[in-house]
Amino acid sequence: MAEVALVEAVTMALAWEMAHDDTVVVFGEDVGINGGVFRATAGLQEKFGKERVPDTPLAENMIAGMSVGMAAQGLKPVAEIQFMGFIYPVVDQMISHAGRMRTRTRGRLTCPMVLRAPYGGGIHAPEHHSESTEALFAHMPGIRVVIPSSPGRAYGLLLASIRDPDPVVFLEPKRIYRSYKEEVEDDGEELPLDMIYTLRDGTDITLVAWGAMIKETLEAGEELERQGVSAEVIDVATIYPLDMEGILESVERTGRCVIVHEAPRHCGVGAEIAAELAEKAFMHLLAPVRRVTGFDTVMPLFRMEKQYMPSTKRIVKTVLDVMAES
Amino acid sequence: MSVTATFKIDYHQFLDENGEAHSDLPGGKLPAFADNPADLVPLYRLMVLTRLFDAKAIALQRTGKLGTYASSLGHEATHVGIGAAMREEDCLAPMYREYGAQFYRGVKMSDVLLYWGGDERGNDFSVPSHDFSWCVPIATQCLHAAGAAVAFKYLRQPRVAVTVVGDGGTSEGQFYEAMNLAGAWKLPVVFVVSNNQWAISVPRSAQSAAQTLAQKAIAAGIPGVQVDGNDLIAVRWAMEEALERARKGDGPSMIEALTYRLSDHTTADDATRYRENAEVEEARRKEPLSRTRKFLEAQGVWDAKQQEALEAECAKQVDAAVAEYENTPVQAPEAIFDYMFANMPESLKQQRDQHVKEMNDG
Question: What is the ipTM of this complex?
Fold first, then answer.
């Protein structure tokens, strides 16, 4: 078993699936000889050839649109958008076609494609390179949105995403691309989509997060433990469709919930989770549901990005406030 | 100064507006498929059927029996020419009015009516089961054709993707992106610009300063040609050349077919607000059906009696399609949900069950 970082787990999953399914084609800008700007496709062109790992012309909506065409005609495209900041041109093809190909044709044509993109802040990147706009895609009917938070889940969830018969936007938290390694067996085993992963058991409060924010949320869990608060930590993993059954099960047990995300607060995925809890868990709640999120501002350039990102300190403080309210 | 590159755009017409044939091919001959004029009769018949169907669809909309409908009036030669040149296994990524091409390929008139009648099952045509469905967001279908061509090339299938875009659509980035990709990757795809002179209310002259739209292909490094889009023979000939080229592995082509939208943009539009009647009348003089008929009559393979019989037969077929459409019941409530995903999310199941229950409870 190899010790790999999250980005290496992505490469490993791509290589596994390409070796076992000839219809998988990996492409994007600079994914070939360069192996991607984050090296997520490193070595794949060498191993599988230029035809299966081609560099595309530089046009993001083209990448999405050609994926729709390829997917409808028998391939499994796995395309990379270089940064989430450059993903916005694809909105047209994703909402107008990828998400509706199956239903508009009553299942005659389908769209088994994966659009991968690194997302999120915290790496001192230039403007446009740090946003978390997962809610945009979560709002598009017909598209799964999946975000791993560890090397193991990156491997298993990416395999599941490629094998899924419908389109998946797979967002990779680039801040933790190389922050640590863990043992991941390269055995082609996928992890289930559409379900939460409970990373820490607790009895007093449920902390709900995803992506890179799992790091701060788990740290907050440890700190809270020292302060006598037992926090359960849930990695949502599939942003759409939400595993509300899983989240509800936990919140009904703990009676409290704090949701953590990097994205702006307004209409963020946390708002949806909070609304679901208000509808379905109200009578179990001992305190109001709170959110720790980015601000409803443009992501500041990197000298101040740390102020924008939810910190372990903010999470702990919010949890202690919630505990004090009940 | 030195010239680094020069370009030209050829224009082809075989059948002029009076139905007289000319040819600039070697020996002054018509293309092989037109050697025997009788072979063109089935195509003419389909053009007539398409036009009668079109008139019926508009009438259905006017009487509240159909939703907004995009007419194909005047485009019949372009559309049937595209359909006739393609092979069954090729793949069409249409915009939304290429009925002539689609009928040739097996799409049923009742499918068209179902789609514009607000029923997704219109897109679920059993033949040709691999073709893309109608595509309303302008020029987005061009990328699907390019993607399909990537698949055909990758899978070593001798198939070609064909897409149709309007003159307005050539202003879209995605049109250029698709041609650029197709050129760079030498894909088996044919781009047809159905230049009907009007993008709703915006005339061709306001759309682009380019002298021809065919020359937009040059920037993508692929051949572009202009044909008389009201000339069935020219369209089919150019399509066959382009398809052959693509099938041989020589890459993509673009064809600009010059035609004219004799109808409103859709039934929701009123073209008298923005264009002169004189212009429409002038265009009507050049429309495709009468010139094809004149040619076939001059060749002795068509006459007034056959025309009369054909129109009666077409009317019957159209009526049967309308009956099939009108007798198709609305889908069950769960159909809204059932095709969203292969593996339906739990949250969607809940919404479906509640919706079905509310519908059943009245």
Answer: 0.97
